[in-house]
Design brief:
Radius of gyration: 18 Å
CATH superfamily: Glycosidases
Mean pLDDT: 84
Distance between the termini: 5 Å
Number of domains: 1
Helix content: 25-40%
Low-confidence stretches: 48-66
Number of strands: 9
């Protein structure tokens, strides 16, 4: 099965599994089965800038001068044991592109992951960003034969983003547009969801015909939110436009102990027919 062309969800939990009960690893893995997910995208690798910011959130993380792998013991194995793909991902900042690519490959090999995603939103304004993406993906490919996805913004309104995305999609197997509705209110309408998806997929299709895995909003942050109508509308609409898979951001907020209505909507979204890798 192609691990990307599936119904997937991102997982960002790092050093805590609050809200998942007395046996949280088992509970989380069972929850993914309950939700009908075929793939979980697990945040395994952090770059140096991200660590500098986020160690305030996760004090147990020990900062490495370059890259810091950090996983909660047992999660990957428990999810894999239930027949769910685990794809790793990490933010890329381009400060150490050789290490970012080679470390990603080493994490895939260490945990027998189904693939990897590079999230480049933190490095697209770096000088020679296309070259940095080239180095990261090439170093990954040199050491690993598992597929890799390119995750970036939904739109390319700034001209400098286009060559970065063109480079990424020339090297990666799939694109993952972060197609989160950004209406600054607490009740997003299905209409705003379809408009955003239409625009996002049209812009990505200007420079790639590779499969697109559409990342939908299942989180609340800085006044932006979602609701059940927006989740269900997004899922139906991306399929209508030919999306090869979905990747919801993210389980940390969408779990039923926090947003039971969102979780029920996610459960109603259908799995994708398995594609041959």
């Amino acid at each position: 099965m192609d691990p990307f062309q599936t119904k997937g969800i991102f997982l960002n939990l790092r050093t805590s599994l609050k809200g998942f009960g007395v046996d949280p690893v088992t509970a989380l893995a069972d929850l993914l089965i309950d939700g009908g997910f075929q793939t979980v995208y697990y945040h395994i690798l952090k770059g140096p800038q991200e660590l500098q910011v986020q160690t305030n959130w996760w004090p147990a993380v020990v900062v490495d001068p370059k890259m810091q792998p950090n996983t909660i013991p047992g999660i990957i194995q428990a999810v894999q044991a239930r027949g769910i793909n685990v794809v790793g991902w990490g933010m890329c900042f381009g400060k150490f592109p050789v290490e970012e690519g080679s470390m990603a490959a080493s994490m895939v090999q260490k945990y027998n992951l189904a693939g990897w995603v590079i999230d480049v939103e933190g490095m697209e304004t770096e000088p020679n960003a296309p070259g940095l993406v080239n180095t990261i993906v090439t170093k990954y490919r040199d050491a690993c034969d598992k597929p890799i996805g390119y995750c970036s913004w939904p739109f390319f309104t700034n001209a400098h983003l286009v060559p970065v995305a063109q480079m990424g999609m020339s090297l990666c197997d799939v694109g993952i547009p972060m197609a989160y509705v950004m209406e600054k209110d607490l009740k997003e309408s299905p209409n705003s969801t379809t408009k955003l998806v239409d625009k996002s997929m049209a812009e990505w299709r200007q420079f790639t015909d590779k499969p697109l895995i559409m990342a939908g909003r299942a989180f609340k942050e800085n006044g932006y939110t979602t609701n059940t109508d927006a989740i269900l509308t997004f899922d139906v609409h991306v399929r209508t436009l030919g999306a090869a898979g979905t990747a919801w951001w993210f389980l940390d907020h969408a779990q039923p102990s926090k947003h039971p209505d969102w979780w029920m909507a996610l459960k109603l979204t259908a799995a994708f027919v398995p594609a041959i890798a």
